[in-house]
Specification:
Oligomer: heterodimer
CATH class of chain B: Alpha Beta
Strand content of chain A: 5-15%
Largest sheet of chain A: 5 strands, parallel
Strand content of chain B: 5-15%
Number of domains of chain A: 1
CATH architecture of chain A: 3-Layer(aba) Sandwich
CATH class of chain A: Alpha Beta
Radius of gyration of chain A: 20 Å
Structural class of chain A: alpha/beta
CATH superfamily of chain B: P-loop containing nucleotide triphosphate hydrolases
Strand order of the largest sheet of chain B: 2-3-1-4-5
Shape of chain B: globular
Helix content of chain B: 40-55%
Number of strands of chain B: 5
Order of helices and strands of chain B: HHHEHEHHEHHEHHEH
Number of domains of chain B: 1
Chain lengths: 285, 289
């Protein structure tokens, strides 16, 4: 069980009104008061403030009763299909869950669309817009639902930004800092498929790759398919580097769909106390 | 600390004045981890241009212009001074480009909408402002500096950091976020009392806006007190940053002409303009009170 120190594990350890949960999360403190005074009031906040996260080290652990399951992998690795099936399994079982997708916040959508259409985006602004999108989902959905004892499923998470934005040249340390407000997943599935398999899955199903999707802004190749392949290779390299440092559960994306799903469900059932998220569990409390 | 950083920066610090070197550590110099930022040789050479990390694809040899930042709270007289400075510099034959918050093509309008709807959380808003800022750095400020222009920035990362910090976002986080921000050649801080700022802002629009008064922070139901408390908190953050970043603090309560004179003296020094005499044209005479 990866659950270390969760406020929700014991009934009387509920997050209190002055936002201690947020302090554990290190980034966000109580609003409306002098910041320095706040830090003095709570020594833990002071201790947590002094270091920038190092690359390869997850953000500090936090306190909430929910659980977070994340899938990562290159385009065409099969992760979305598998997460969909996992979601169906849990939905049919009646579990309390919320599904969230990378780059899907309506607040940020028009900006992203405009930036892509007019090719205004640089590696830095591309990265920042995605961070703003994630922050919006994090503040308004992911965190509140984790506090509210939900199972949250995320199709792509901060590791997508670490792998992809670093492939575009953003400094890894800057990226790690950018996303340090993100809660650490309980399970991160990394779907790994050989580059050719993943790339061919995408190329065969899509008439034309989009400019940023193909990584054309990197100037790797004038040919979109070739650019996409080179870009994906860099991203995969980025993912591979995080396997140990970020506790990825590596799954073989070339396995038959149902076999892979079986593995995924077994791992979820063994690592997460699913009973907690069932609608009615009379024996539990 | 400033001394050591200066030594490191000696090599090829052509366009950078001494004031800037004092700011060599990160925006919030209190954190020990920023020292690690200056370890690799690449970053050493870059630290005169950036607070922490260089922008992707940045080439320092291209920078020939000057970046001048004017900071200060709402009602401190920033935009008045920038209008006057622009006219003065142009009359001296310098090309001038201005920048300011929410002016990017990428997300400027989106932020306006978010603010109008008031449907945005603090971190998201902070990151949208960061996007706006870096879009302007990459598409407006850097091209201008490459072309040898003087960039007059109406506010900079310091306002953005202060606004985030008073809303409870970690200071180190924000410093890290803006680690790739260009380091200004000169940063002026027009310091005014919140009470003065309130009177000036109210006179301007006969109203105080939701965000100017920091009403999202629930400081007071009374608009006046909300404004005063909020701007006092912002001011306190500026005091923290002023030393670490070698702000040139000017008394924003002084007359427009005397503040402008001090600005011209400092900026003229950096640009090699000897005589900094100036009287505004008829078009701007109304600002010269």
């Amino acid at each position: 069980m990866t659950r270390v120190s969760r406020a929700g594990d014991t009934a009387d350890d509920k997050p209190d009104a002055d936002g201690r949960v947020m302090e554990n999360q290190d980034l966000l403190k109580d609003v409306g008061k002098d910041a320095a005074k706040d830090a003095k009031k709570d020594p833990r906040a002071e201790a947590g403030k002094s270091t920038l996260p190092q690359p390869g080290r997850p953000v500090p652990s936090r306190a909430y009763p929910g659980a977070l399951i994340v899938v990562e992998g290159t385009d065409g690795s099969g992760k979305s299909t598998q997460l969909y099936l996992l979601k169906r399994w849990l939905e049919i079982g009646g579990y309390r869950l919320h599904f969230t997708e990378w780059n899907s916040s309506p607040l940020v959508k028009s900006a992203t669309r405009r930036g892509k259409q007019r090719r205004l985006l640089t590696p830095t602004t591309f990265s920042l817009l995605h961070a703003a999108d994630f922050a919006d989902r994090c503040e308004r959905q992911i965190m509140p639902l984790l506090q509210g004892d939900y199972l949250v499923l995320a199709d792509r998470y901060i590791y997508t930004a670490f792998a992809r934005d670093a492939a575009r040249g953003c400094p890894p340390r800057w990226l790690r800092n950018l996303y340090r407000f993100a809660p650490v997943p309980d399970i991160t599935f990394y779907f790994r498929a050989p580059l050719d398999v993943a790339v061919n899955r995408i190329l065969s199903g899509r008439p034309k790759l989009k400019y940023y999707e193909a990584g054309m802004d990197l100037g790797l190749s004038y040919d979109r398919a070739e650019s996409f392949r080179l870009f994906q290779a860099r991203i995969m390299e980025g993912y591979d580097k995080m396997v140990d440092s970020d506790n990825f559960v590596v799954l073989d994306g070339t396995l038959p769909v149902n076999k892979l799903q079986k593995q995924m469900r077994d791992i979820v059932a063994s690592k997460i106390d699913l009973k907690r998220f069932a609608p009615r569990a009379p024996e539990q409390e | 600390m400033a001394e050591r950083e200066k030594e490191k920066n000696v090599s090829g610090a052509a366009a950078v004045t001494n004031e800037v070197a004092g700011a060599a550590n990160s925006v919030s110099g209190a954190m020990p981890s920023t020292e690690k930022h200056a370890t690799s040789p690449v970053e050493d050479a870059m630290s005169q241009y950036f607070f922490g990390e260089p922008l992707v694809g940045f080439d320092p040899s291209e920078i020939t212009g000057q970046l001048v930042v004017i900071e200060g709270m709402d009602g401190s007289g920033r935009s008045t001074q920038i209008a006057l400075l622009q006219e003065w510099l142009e009359s001296e034959g310098f090309s001038v480009i201005t920048s300011g918050l929410r002016r990017s093509n990428l997300v400027g309008r989106d932020i306006d909408e978010l603010l109008a709807k008031n449907a945005v959380t603090r971190l998201t808003l902070s990151l949208m402002y960061a996007t706006d800022f870096f879009d302007q750095v990459e598409h407006r400020i850097l091209p201008a500096l490459r072309a040898g222009a003087v960039v007059l920035a109406d506010r900079f990362i310091f306002t953005l950091i202060a606004r985030g910090v008073v809303r409870g976002i970690n200071r180190d986080y924000l410093s890290g976020l803006y680690a790739m921000a260009l380091r200004p050649h000169l940063t002026f801080w027009l310091n005014v009392r919140p009470e003065t700022a309130f009177a000036r802002e109210f006179k301007k629009a006969q109203a105080i806006s939701y965000w100017e008064a920091g009403r999202d922070m629930s400081l007071s139901h009374d608009l006046y007190w909300s404004f005063i408390r909020y701007q006092t908190m912002i001011k306190r953050e500026f005091e923290v940053m002023a030393k670490k970043n070698s702000f040139i603090e000017l008394d924003g309560e002084a007359s427009v002409s005397s503040v402008n004179k001090q600005l011209r003296a400092k900026i003229g020094e950096g640009l090699g303009i000897r005589a900094t005499k100036y009287t505004p044209s008829a078009a701007l005479a109304h600002l010269w009170r």
